[in-house]
Design a protein that fits this description.
The chain is mostly helical and about 550 residues long. The protein has 23 helices and no strands. The chain has 2 domains: about 260 residues, no CATH class; about 240 residues, no CATH class. α2 packs antiparallel against α4 and α12 packs across α16. The longest helix is centred in the last third of the chain and has 35 residues. The relative contact order is 0.09.
């Protein structure tokens, strides 16, 4: 496999994540000057407020250094988020290289040319590394463009340091995913890799609050990423931490290459032994496989269980976090105008709606994107052709997909709502049960909103669908975050599904937003059905 070919396979990811990185650093840099004030006293007061606010959320992100400066603010607001964004990119890209290409038959084609397995894997790693270099460089250019408009500057050494640190984290996450994929079966590789990365992220995040975990956080690459904050004045570039990131990435790449050379294509390195059994060449007699929708849910039962349990546990954690941070936050007089934007009724319901359901919207969007990624893979690896040959109409396939996503989202939303309700009662947080039910169920049309757009993209550009839909989700999320800062017109926020969701826990259901989401979902699936009828599978 040539290096240029590996770049071609990842071109959509490079373009999409580079554009997101540039837009985020540029807007955060410009936004800093919109809210920081004009006098040294105003800047100092802003910095104290941000530091006090960030101290309540260290369970999620590291505390900032000098948030009263543009470097410290961008380091906190943009590059802390990049740790999650680039880890997701590494996860998706590494799975595609390790397992997705095998399902599509690309690995066999490459190996048939005489390319050694280790060479093929290392070339994919180098291709991703080159793409990351482009993305982190573009992100640094966004920072420079943002601060130059205010006639300030950030040293090239600081920009280089933060870029190298981010590059090291991305490569480490990529190599780790590659390694996990060698040991996990293809159908479980994505879930296994995501669980490992999420576990390491939470190990580092929770260790800031739980001393019991501090002795183990050295295992997490996110810990070494947090050690360097070179953009902030007085921040440091931890050479040892960066060396740990690049060193562990190199070691895991070597181990993954060795493991790949010893396993069969399409199989894990270690197979679980099974008892001797007769080989059956007849169709499975389980009646579930003959019932539309039920077969889709049954096939996805493991993933649905993981999503349901994980979202419910995170909901419980957010309730506990809300209970602990509300009173300290209310004592910050400088932040009261900001809190007034979402406190519309009771204090605790407003904060819980803002913190938990704001996060739950991202999770349910992620669930929808995961289902769309499966549709995209089925389109390119031959599974969709097998389904259509049963025969099942293309329109029937689309209706079944939409129904499966809707029921799955309903299960996730209902379980998380029950968990949040029980924990809120345990924490003595008085919630309106009707509004809690509405807020939870409203996550279902949000999932359908993203699924419909994903179905439309699968009908047009199946190979680029996941990157485009993920980019749309991130842009949609940041529209809500940045529109108040830049005083954008109110209609711009209506372009975001996260704004259409509203604040149902504290203000009730936004009927207009709900209707718009339902219309987009209906139109998206209808148009995708028409497009799917008119194109060749895999084209």
């Amino acid at each position: 496999m040539s290096f240029l070919y590996s770049l071609r396979l990842t071109r959509w990811g490079i373009a999409g994540f580079s554009a997101l990185a540039f837009a985020l650093t540029l807007l955060q840099s410009i936004g800093f000057y919109q809210i920081v004030g004009h006098t040294p006293a105003e800047r100092a007061a802003f910095g104290r407020s941000m530091a006090q606010l960030a101290a309540q959320f260290t369970v999620l992100i590291a505390a900032p250094i000098r948030p009263d400066t543009v470097g410290g603010y961008v380091q906190w607001r943009a590059y802390s988020f990049f740790a999650i964004l680039f880890a997701i990119w590494a996860l998706v890209s590494a799975y595609g290289a390790a397992r997705g290409d095998e399902e599509r038959g690309l690995v066999e084609q490459v190996l048939a040319t005489g390319t050694a397995r280790t060479d093929a894997l290392v070339t994919r790693v180098l291709g991703f590394a080159a793409g990351c270099v482009v993305a982190v460089t573009v992100a640094a250019l966004g920072v420079e463009a943002g601060v130059s408009g205010a006639h300030e500057s950030i040293g090239i050494d600081s920009l280089a340091g933060v870029s190298v640190n981010l590059l090291g984290l991305a490569l480490c996450c990529y190599a780790l995913t590659m390694l996990v994929c060698q040991f996990a079966a293809s159908r479980y590789a994505t879930a296994a890799s995501a669980i490992v990365l999420l576990g390491l992220f939470l190990l580092n995040s929770l260790s800031r609050q739980l001393d019991q975990l501090s002795a183990w956080r050295w295992l997490s690459p996110f810990r070494y990423y947090d050690l360097s904050q070179p953009l902030a004045p007085g921040g440091t570039f931890d050479v040892r931490g960066v060396e740990a990131l690049f060193g562990s990435a190199a070691v895991m790449t070597v181990v993954a290459a060795v493991a790949f050379s010893y396993r069969d294509v399409g199989s894990p390195l270690v197979r679980i032994p099974v008892a001797p059994h007769h080989v059956l060449r007849e169709p499975d007699r389980n009646p579930v496989w003959r019932v539309p929708v039920l077969r889709g849910l049954y096939e996805r039962r493991a993933g649905l269980a993981v999503w349901t349990i994980g979202v419910a546990l995170l909901g419980v954690l957010m309730v506990i976090l809300t209970k602990n941070i509300v009173e300290p936050l209310l004592g910050l007089a400088q932040l009261r105008p900001y809190f007034n934007l979402f406190i519309t009724s009771g204090i605790y319901p407003s904060f819980l709606g803002f913190i938990w359901f704001g996060f739950a919207q991202l999770l349910i969007a992620g669930y929808a994107i995961a289902q769309v990624a499966r549709w995209s893979a089925e389109d390119t690896d031959g599974r969709l052709e097998a389904v259509l040959s049963n025969p099942i109409s293309r329109r029937g396939v689309l209706i079944e997909r939409a129904t499966v996503v809707m029921i799955g989202a309903l299960v996730v939303a209902a379980a998380s709502g029950v968990a949040v309700g029980i924990e809120s009662h345990a924490q003595s947080i008085d919630l309106n049960q009707g509004r809690l039910i509405s807020a939870s169920l409203l996550l279902v049309p949000m999932a359908m909103f993203f699924a419909a757009i994903g179905a439309l993209l699968v009908s047009l550009l199946p190979r680029a669908t996941v990157g485009l839909l993920g980019g749309f989700a991130f842009v949609s999320y940041f529209i809500v975050q940045l529109a108040p800062i830049f005083h954008w017109p109110s209609w711009t926020q209506d372009l975001s599904a996260f704004h259409l969701y509203g604040q149902p826990l504290s203000s009730g259901v936004d009927i207009t937003g709900l209707v718009i989401m339902l219309i987009v979902a209906a139109v998206g699936f209808a148009v995708s059905a028409l497009l799917m009828e008119r194109r060749d599978v895999g084209a």
